[in-house]
């Protein structure tokens, strides 16, 4: 029998999920407080528009903004007493607590968090492949039934995600450290640029660009996410504060006193950063691989980078990552090509043979 | 008459400078406490090895580690009473102060800071084009002679750099905000990952990777840089601390109290980050341009990215930047191609026509 999924919320995530599930043969019905959004989602083939005559769904996925997710989950549990209910909010503990406190039949509730998103929001930004190859965290609680958990797992696998199962507090602690605090750090570093003289921001290099790229994110959405995960974010921000204080203390000692111990403190923070950085997994979720970088000068003209990468491909070498660097006033770029160590020398000699300027 | 440049210090910067100046017809003599390093630099065509018979240089460039730069500058001023002397340390006020305090003939001293470097150090990593298209900050002080300043300017232009002139304190304040504090922030965020469970770091995405990329930098070099610019770095770190405290205060209010004002504080930090981020200049040192991103699915196989970029080039469209994204467990990548807004629609339709999966 075809599974009937009700999606509540026709934004980026809800509409993308509707399109993906419809494509996999699920029956999808849609609702949203905005009649325009729900009709747009239908036109994008995300499913049918639900009305008073639509029969009860087997599964409900709440794709509402994080600050109303719990309330919509509780309503859904009461409204459809036979359905499994989930939500896709990027924080899980606060939603779970509110659901448990409501007195609703929480056995049928399982949280989830598809690790997918875009800089843009709304149904118009939806895409069928949004979840493909992404992690989808399934977040059961103590009384979630096994049937409810496997139901969510089935949906996540159907849209091409990799399923990870973890409890709510573990999920929230993880995303605080790997997502929410990095967002705050990027915003805070970028905020320090606001009042700099023009000549000073002119010295910006690729390091600053990388650190602050996500500082361009949407403040409205991120305020909700941070508030929804306040406790776990606070724990990590306290670690950040302690390190910031230690650095300032060391700088104080260097500026105002004899600086004893200061260099050790600074070096300790930088070394801890080396160790933490080394824990970030590489491509495809595999253990971090020590890729090596081959840097090649690329003239700033249409087709030059393509020609370079064509030569890389023709050499039978798989490019693991690519970073294009332009400095202040550069008329050329430098392509940093990451490959497995064994490919470094073959690639360097082949590119040099073909006339590329390969850096050491 | 050929200008004779003595380079003191045959590391990455000194050797690269020697190679570049030799290539432009300068006479370069080299010295370094390490006989191996100086001979390696000579073999790389960075110049002749200086000995007791080498005649006096016209210009001395001190390319020693930051913590000994001032001392080497003072020695050079005393040793060659006719020469202009400069250094390339990435902090300028502390070097200048020590030179002025030494009683040496500081009129012939002009600081400089070529904004170029690599993750690797040493003569072996040198390259002739290290300074090409990079900013070279020339840092005169009150009694620097105009002749000394134009001499440094000539060297910077000869190696292909763009010359910016600013006083030492202005330089140090600028690099504190655009380079030194971003380094600390990246290290501190990465340090928070050290003790996470494996499942938590498994949720890392491209945002974390960008924020922490430079956390892999060399702690020894960076300890010297931070200590050398302690006062200016401290000023910016205090701004960081105030914002970290404000965020923690808001999270406290949300967790422990009624949260009044908390959302406004969080949103304020995120909005300030938007504003600061918008001030970072774009490619080629130009004013920031709102490039738009076209996202295209790239199969993970040799040559696929090249084929894509070949199609972009054939469409006559100039790629302004390129970012390759791989999520956890993805078998395909997404290439994010930045182009000027007017090229978005032509590029999208051309790529779709050729069978590429282009995201909205």
UniProtKB/TrEMBL annotation, chains A, B:
Record field: catalytic activity: prephenate + NAD(+) = 3-(4-hydroxyphenyl)pyruvate + CO2 + NADH
Known EC number: 1.3.1.12
Keyword NAD part of the UniProt annotation: yes
Keyword match Electron transport: no
Keyword annotations of the record: Amino-acid biosynthesis, Aromatic amino acid biosynthesis, NAD, Oxidoreductase, Tyrosine biosynthesis
Domain Prephenate/arogenate dehydrogenase: 3-283
Domain ACT: 293-360
SUPFAM superfamilies reported in the protein's UniProt record: 6-phosphogluconate dehydrogenase C-terminal domain-like, ACT-like, NAD(P)-binding Rossmann-fold domains
Pathways per UniProt: Amino-acid biosynthesis; L-tyrosine biosynthesis; (4-hydroxyphenyl)pyruvate from prephenate (NAD(+) route): step 1/1
Family: Belongs to the prephenate/arogenate dehydrogenase family.
Name by which UniProt lists this protein: Prephenate dehydrogenase
